[in-house]
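Hi R.,

Here's the chain you asked about this morning:
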Amino acid sequence: MGLDAYKQIMLDRMGKSKYNQMFQQATISPAKDLTLLLDEGAKLLDDRIEQLEATRRKTRQDELLEKAEQERQARESASKLLRPLTPDETQIVKNAIYGIGPKAEVLASQDADSVQRDSMHRLQPGHWLNDEIINYFLKNCLAKRDEKLCAKQSGRKRSHFFNSFFVQTMFDEKNSNYDLRGRYNYKNVRRWSKKVPGKDVFNLKYIFCPINLDNMHWTSACIFMEQKKIQYYDSMGGTDWGKLKGLLQYLKDEWKAKKGGEMD
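And the predicted structure, written out as tokens:
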């Protein structure tokens, strides 16, 4: 029995209405209709991809605009710090740097930190900057500026500015035992992280470490926590690999001591 004859028998027995109801969905579409269906599906897929791409581009554009605005605000904030001094302010600075008076006289103070006249005199050209000047600037200028930036920029991580004694203590440079002097010693600085914002060095953006080289030269190291790199800055063009390796080891030891296990 052929297919057409079989269909006719089913139609005669079931009736046209019931036959159509049961077998309409089983009808095979012609090749032309199938091609049209595929074309429509492809167009829908293309439209969806374009929508996703447009959303991605807009999101990326919004991120760039937000970053540009943050940078503009940062430059504006910095420009206020670097604005030209007024004549009265210039005279105050000259009196502090060149003025005559008791060497121990305190000329600037913030909370428990202070700068004496003798340290101010070291800002004169050709003089060696001491720890008091460096540490006061880091803590009471840069650290406070960083705090303000983070308050204005949602999601920005805090940075920390160790004082000049951090690296010195980490390398035991004041040890009376000459054999131990200059050697990395994590135990000496294990508690220093309690003073960083959030008490967790691994939740910071930058870690700044000023380095006093034998009271003859200042350098600095910066740990970029998000980029996972350590950079050394020296106006003489040098690189102290021992200090860099020590700072990396500090991070490893800090992770092991505070979080457990090995740092990636």
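The beta strands are 106-110, 113-116, 160-161, 206-213, 217-224, 229-233.

Let me know if you need anything else.
M.
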